[in-house]
Each structure stands twice: as C-alpha cells, then as structure tokens.
Amino acid sequence: MMKLRAEDLGALARGAAVLGTGGGGDPHIGRLLAQQALKEHGPVEVVAVGDLPDDACVLPVAMMGAPTVMVEKLPSADQISIAVQTLAKYVGKTPTHLACIEAGGVNSTVPVIAAAQLGLPLVDGDGMGRAFPELQMVLPTLAGIEATPMAIVDEKGNRGVFDTVTNEWAERLARSATVDMGCSAIVSLYAMTGAEVRESFVAGTLSKCVSIGEAIDRAQQLHGDPVAAVVDELGGRLLHVGKVVDVQRRTTTGFARGDAAVDGLDGSQGRLLVLRFQNEHLVAELDGTAIATTPDLIIVLDTESGEPITTESLRYGHRVSVLAAPADERWHSPAGIELVGPRYFGYDLDPIRALETV
Amino acid sequence: MMKLRAEDLGALARGAAVLGTGGGGDPHIGRLLAQQALKEHGPVEVVAVGDLPDDACVLPVAMMGAPTVMVEKLPSADQISIAVQTLAKYVGKTPTHLACIEAGGVNSTVPVIAAAQLGLPLVDGDGMGRAFPELQMVLPTLAGIEATPMAIVDEKGNRGVFDTVTNEWAERLARSATVDMGCSAIVSLYAMTGAEVRESFVAGTLSKCVSIGEAIDRAQQLHGDPVAAVVDELGGRLLHVGKVVDVQRRTTTGFARGDAAVDGLDGSQGRLLVLRFQNEHLVAELDGTAIATTPDLIIVLDTESGEPITTESLRYGHRVSVLAAPADERWHSPAGIELVGPRYFGYDLDPIRALETV
Q1: Domain B2-205 has CATH 3.40.1610.10
Q2: Which residues form a coiled coil (chains A, B) (predicted)?
Q3: Which residues in chain A have their CB less than 8 angstroms from residue B172's CB?
Q4: Which of A136, A154, A156, A162 is the best substitution to test chain B (most B C-beta atoms within 10 A)?
Q5: I want to staple A60 with a disulfide (CB 3.0 to 4.6 A). Which of A101, A171, B2, B185 is the partner?
Q6: pLDDT tens column, B28-81
Q7: Which CATH number is correct for A225-345, 3.40.50.1980, 2.40.390.10, 3.40.630.30, 1.10.760.10?
Q8: A152 and A45 Cβ atoms separated by less than 8 Å
Q9: Residue contact B161–A161, C-beta within 8 A
Q10: A159 to chain B nearest CA, in Å?
Q11: Can you tell me the ipTM of this complex?
C-alpha cells in the first residue's frame, strides 16, 4: 500500500497531463484543488488493482465537459464528494474504494479530492490508460460493464442520476446535462466490484503518472532532455519537433474541438505536422499523411522543459515536441477500434500504431 | 369517492382536450391507452382533494415533450408505471395516490393508466386547471413546492432522476433529456403530501373534464349548440367564429410552436384572428390587437361538433370557434403572471382577461 501525499501531487498532475494527450483540463488547477484537500484531510491510501478484494465497491469519479470551460469554472468544495454520495445512495451501497475512470489532467486529481474528503482509499489504475472524450470510451465498456447508474452534479447544487440501456445512452444524456450545467459537471459512474476492476482496468496508472512526472522533474534538474525522458517512460517515439504556426479551436456540444499545425525546425523546417483534437489529440498528420492515430497516445510537450501542453494552452509560436506512445493493447482489438478508432471520430483512416515506421 | 370506468374515458379525454387549450397531445390516443388499462385492471378510484389525508404521499405523473411527437411515439406498456416507481424508490416512499399535474389531453389520461396498473387512487384535481408548456408552470411552484426529485423515463428503458435547486432547473435538465429521448418522455415529479395538494392544487378537475365532455356529447345528441355548451361550462365567452386560413408550425427544442390565422365568416369575414401557440394557445389577436392572453384559457373547437382541436390537428379550411375562459385566480397574482404571463413567452403585452370587453 502506497500513500499519496500533498508533495506527490506535482509529479502526479504532470504525468497525468502527459497521459491526458492534450485533454483532461489544466493539470495545475487539479493539483491545487487536490493539494488543498490533502492538506486538510491528510494523505490518501493508494491500493494496487491486484490487492482489491473481490467484493470491494469501487466508485470512479471524474469531471465531464470541455477542458476550455473547466479551467474557468472550478468545482465547488463538496461537489466531487456529492457526486460519489449521490451514486452510492442510488445504488444502495457503501463505497470501499474510489477510482479514476481516465488518466488525464484533472481526472487524475479529482478522485484524489473525493478520496481525501471521504476518507476512502484510491485504486492505482484507471479505465483507459489515457484520456478519451466520451464516457463510454473505457475498457470496462469492452468488458461489458455498465456505465450506469451514474450520478451527475453541478456546482450550483443540481443533481441527476441516469440509468440507461447502453453506455452510449449514458454519454448522450449526461452530455446534454453537462451542457445545461454550464459545460462542466462532476460524474460518478461505472460502479464496479473489485473483481470487475481487476478484469477491466489498466493497472498502475497513478504510479505511472507519478513516475513520468518525476522523470520530467529529474531531467529538468539535471539539465538533461525531459522530452527523451518521457519517450523512454512511455516506450514511445518522437514524431516531430517544431513551432506552433496555427491553432483553430471551437467549443461545441460540450467538447473542445480543433486543429493545430506545427512547422518543423532547422533541418525539418517546412515539414508541417497537423494535430486534430476533440478534447484529446486524435490524429497526427505529417505533410498531409497520418502518422499516428487514436487509440495510441499523441502527446505534445514543451520542447525545452518537457512540460505537457493541453490543447487549450497551445499558442502560436510555442516550441513543442510531438510524441506518440502505444495504448493498452485491448484498445487495438476490433471492439476497441470500433469504440475509439479514427473512424468513430469521423476520420476515414485505419488506426496507425505509434511504433509503426513512417 | 367516485370511480372512473372505461366508459367515462370518452368524456374525460374530450373535456381534458378543452382545458388543454390546444396542447397536451391527441386526446384520442390517451383515451385508447387508458381504456386498455381500465379494461385490464378494472376501474380507478377518484378521491376529492378535500378527502386526502394530510400525510398522503401523492405522486403526479405526466408525459413531457412535443405533442406533435407524442401522437406518433406511444409510451411502452409499463413506461408510465416505471416513472412513478423510479421516483418512489428515489424518495424512499410508498405512493398512496397518483395525480395529474396538468389538465390537458394526454396528461389527464396518462395518470389514469398508472393508477390502473399500480392499483392506486387518483386525485380529482390538477396543478394548473389547464395546460402549460413548461414544468415549473404549476400552482405548486407558486406555493413553494419543489418539482424535484423527479423521474424521467423513455420507451427504450432509459431512466433518469433530477434533484435541482429550482423548478426552472428541473425544466431545463428534463427538457434536454426529453429531446435526447426522442422529444417525448414520461415524468413523475412534484411529490407532495395530501396537505400540500389541498393547498396548491385546483380541485375537481377530473370531474370538470368529464362534465365538459358530457355537455359536448349531450349537445351533439340533442342537435343543440356544443360550442355554447362549453362556453357555459367554463363561464367563458366566444371570441371568434371562422375558417382556418393559415397554420405555421415548427417543432423546436422539444416544443410545438407556431401561429394559426382564422378568417371570420359571414358578417365578420375579413376579420382575422391570429392564435400564437407553444404547445398551448398563448395569445389571440383580432385584426392585430390582442384580445385574450395567457394565463386565461384560449380554446379552439370545431364549430359544428364542438370537439376540441389540438394545435397539431389545426388544418386549412377547418371551421372553428375560438373561445376564452378564466384561469384559476391564483394565476393572476403577480407571481403567477411572472411565471406564465405573456411576457414570459416573449410577448410584450400585459395579460388580458378572458371576460374583459374588447
């Protein structure tokens, strides 16, 4: 059993923003909120997926909505706990553990806040191994686990519960409610037993986030190459190094969608890498040819510091490195590709793996 | 205590369509569904508002959405009961009575179906004394009673519960869910004690619907004047007799909105009465001047038969009589006018009472 302390949150939030592949909201804000909760309530216990009792009652909790809005509309003090409590009351069970449903930005720290406030341990794992924009896009869906009953709450005190016939229906109803609630809300969903978590989760994500965050920090301290350190941690590869020359961004139907273009530097000047995103980066095209796609991870880092850059903070002139890294292998199954492959998002492309040669 | 039998439903549905002031959906469909339920489960007991025990647990139930859609997408066999059961489970109470939240078309017969299926008595009253298009527009809102917790269910098996900070927030979240669910859904809301029902309901609405329906029937049988019979029953007045010459209709954000123009006949030919509706008729203008507005009732009947005509069945060439009748006096209070007066619906008009002189 590991303990998560206020001083671990910097590394956790930084690593989570890397796995967040551009989405998940500003990691800084999530870190501040979680630090405040840990200072007030003490450290949170982190339990390995393999150590969960079969009959554990695990309630994941997350922020839903457009990251562009999340950075301006903070959750209220007890909103996150209320989401968990609303779901617990509806299903008539007492939660024994909380969990992250995705690894990414705010959604790696939001569950830390609830765990601290409610005095519950947190599972060291998540339902994706990265971030994706829609709520049915989790490995538990592939394992036949239902997203609902789910709870949704806003910072004004409005609460809702949905109990739907498919996980896609949960996404649809919760997305509309999120838009009504001001484009961000807290959700608790995919209530699972310990056995179900072991079957369907990616194990070790919180530890991995901390380890990625620490690797970036170490490289910065030692004047090393933080980008190379992240590539190493993820077993990924560097796609492109350059300067942001264009960003198109729009917040529609509760998502932050857009494209960004990165012109190469030095030898590769004139080679244009275009990133297409919907909360998260989904496709990377080099000179018009896709070279990496969802479900693999496409990550943008500040070239000098190695700090992860979310889609909403991409700016003209930013010097960035774009990398790709393999997703959990279950995402490459036919059902995984149907759920989160490029065609689901409207790109007429077969998925391209991060480690394929260009 | 009165019993509602299958043979009463013709008169009930017809009278409810009169009070529905153009909204509430096709009464014929509601009648058929209720007749089927009464044949299967036997008559439903109807309890006067004054006879309710203080601690009764009364759950109103209704169809929400665009009447234009309701006539094509019937509720599933158990959808209506499931809405009541979902709310009962959420509030942790056993309902003792069901009720209509509005008097109007389908929403006077939907609760009959649930009462028959669940073997519960029905309250002889409703929350409006007429029909209005949004769910906060009920006298219980004026009495400070909360719409939520509320349940919403669709015919596919999706269920939701909302618990909101205001009744306007309940409308907003439930309207979005209704649109997602295909523009019609069943809701159960405004859970009340018997004492609260006595304080905030319009008493006797179901009996009044039956009595209006029977008056139309009697006038038809005796070759009398069914339109005059309805004017008598309601204490209203005849505004205009003519022929429909134009109908503009659009289904937007879960409502059926539009306008209809009625040209006068004989002596009044050339005098144009325009009806403006959002599910229900809200304003009647004669030659460009408003002569009756919400909250009073504006009702369109077939001139010959006296049958009420819903906004979705208004057709070019239809010979119609337009009447106005006074609403429950509580609707004319300042708070009532703020909730359902012409300005709420975007008309820059003071309310005009049905019985004012033109």
Answers
A1: yes
A2: none
A3: 180
A4: A162
A5: A101
A6: 878 888 999 999 999 999 999 999 999 999 999 999 987 667 667 778 879 999
A7: 2.40.390.10
A8: no
A9: yes
A10: 5
A11: 0.85
